[in-house]
């Protein structure tokens, strides 16, 4: 009997290797540090603005500069609570898609770390469309 392959572990190793080999530009972006919860253990503020326009522009320039030597782009949205500024996520994600096309690199499906409170069917559908 052949040894069984742990497929989940193999996929985790493959994912970690891809993130570390430098061919895929992987970014974790916090469009806001604001949060809609007030957890006792959390250090994040419940208030806070969204990413400033000049920071957004600098981020786009950074990605544009780095993609020329990449094979792909992967984005993870983080925060506070990133769904508080969902229109900004949509705007930036669309710009990342354009840059991926410009540089002819693969755009990997994005991820989002969220408490899920503001997530509804429409937002979920829109996230899938942005992937």
Could you explain how this protein is built, in words?
The protein is an alpha/beta fold. It contains four helices and four strands; from the N terminus they run αβαβαββα. Strands 1, 2, 3 and 4 form a four-stranded parallel sheet that branches. The longest helix is centred in the last third of the chain and has 18 residues. The radius of gyration is 17 Å and the shape is globular. The termini are far apart. The model has no long low-confidence stretch (mean pLDDT 89).
Provide a brief overview of the structure.
It is built from four helices and four strands, in the order αβαβαββα. It is α/β, with parallel strands linked by helices. Helix 3 runs parallel beside helix 4.
Please give the structural blueprint.
Layout: H1 7-20, E1 24-29, H2 53-67, E2 72-77, H3 86-103, E3 106-107, E4 111-112, H4 121-130
Parallel strand pairs: 1-2, 2-3, 2-4
Which labels suit this protein?
about 130 residues, 4 strands, about 45% helix, alpha/beta, four-stranded parallel beta sheet
Order of helices and strands: HEHEHEEH
**Unreliable segments (pLDDT under 50, ≥5 consecutive)?**
none
Helix-strand makeup class: alpha/beta
Distance between the termini: 41 Å
Largest sheet descriptor: 4 strands, parallel
The 3D shape can be described as globular
- Give the tally of structural domains: 1
Number of helices: 4
Question: What helical percentage do the residues reach?
Answer: 40-55%
Mean pLDDT: 89
Radius of gyration: 17 Å
**Portion in beta strands:** 5-15%
Number of beta-strand segments: 4
């Amino acid at each position: 009997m052949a040894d069984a392959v742990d497929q989940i572990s193999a996929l985790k190793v493959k994912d970690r290797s891809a993130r570390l080999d430098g061919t895929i530009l992987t970014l974790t972006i916090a469009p806001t540090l604001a949060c809609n919860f007030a957890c006792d253990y959390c250090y994040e503020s419940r208030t806070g603005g969204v990413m400033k326009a000049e920071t957004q522009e600098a981020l786009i320039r950074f990605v544009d500069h780095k993609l020329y030597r990449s094979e792909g782009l992967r984005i993870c949205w983080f925060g506070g609570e990133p769904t508080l500024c969902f229109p900004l996520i949509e705007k930036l994600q669309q710009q990342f898609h354009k840059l991926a096309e410009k540089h002819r690199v693969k755009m990997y499906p994005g991820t989002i770390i969220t408490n899920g409170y503001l997530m509804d069917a429409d937002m979920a559908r829109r996230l899938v469309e942005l992937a």
